[in-house]
Amino acid sequence: TSAGAGAGGRAGSAPMCDYTGLGDEGGPLTVATLRHGGRIVKVMGHAEMSEQAQHIADAWWMPLWREADIAVFNIGHHYRVLDSSYSSYWKLVIDILAQFAEFSKKEAQIIFRTTNLGHVACENSFAPQRTAAAAWAALGGREWRPPAATPTYFGQPRDDGDDKYDWRAPPLHEIEWRKQAAFSSLASRFSVLNVSFVDMRSDGHVAGAMAFHADSLKSTAQKDCLHYCLPGPADSWAHALYNLLLNDARFS
């Protein structure tokens, strides 16, 4: 995810993502102060965030979490660095929910955002697919097995099949959040923000703009068909969140 040509991209060029900093997403911490009071705080990281969430007392972002009235979080694709088999994912979910219950405000609402798929050859896609099911079918459907190899660099292929980057793993295991939350003390204030409809958006990815990344390891890697440019398909996450906040009685 990054800025498009109309919002931070290179002037006079075709639309692309402008890679600066941590994926041009503002670094690990971004704070926006609202004109009429309150703040929007974004904390971002990779696999380390999953580990920190299991021990929030030691996390640098713990004071921010304690202050939150509404917290939206996602584990995402980088979890596979910790457990490519996903055999311990359920335990991670239980541990994190317990930490959230202990370190959040008692009235805080906790929202888990689901994870979207990547799309093979996204650089050739200029419109959404007809259905999200088509995106799943292109990766081999919903029958999954752990990848054959764990590469040195996260963005390298992990398997020889249709889903060579193992993009299906996170959404296939995320049912654990709803299931485990139902038996936790967070049950009455835990929601799942289902954005699986974005799976049909094979267009709008970073794609060939990876070549402009400041990190030579990434600029020479494969085209990025997992992350999206901003503005773009990922803006639909915000629309879905707004709908949840507006129409769910718990947020009134």
Automatic annotation (TrEMBL):
Residues 57-243 form the Trichome birefringence-like C-terminal domain. InterPro entries: TBL_C. Belongs to the PC-esterase family. TBL subfamily. Pfam families: PC-Esterase. This is Trichome birefringence-like C-terminal domain-containing protein. It comes from Chrysotila carterae (Marine alga). GO terms for molecular function: transferase activity.
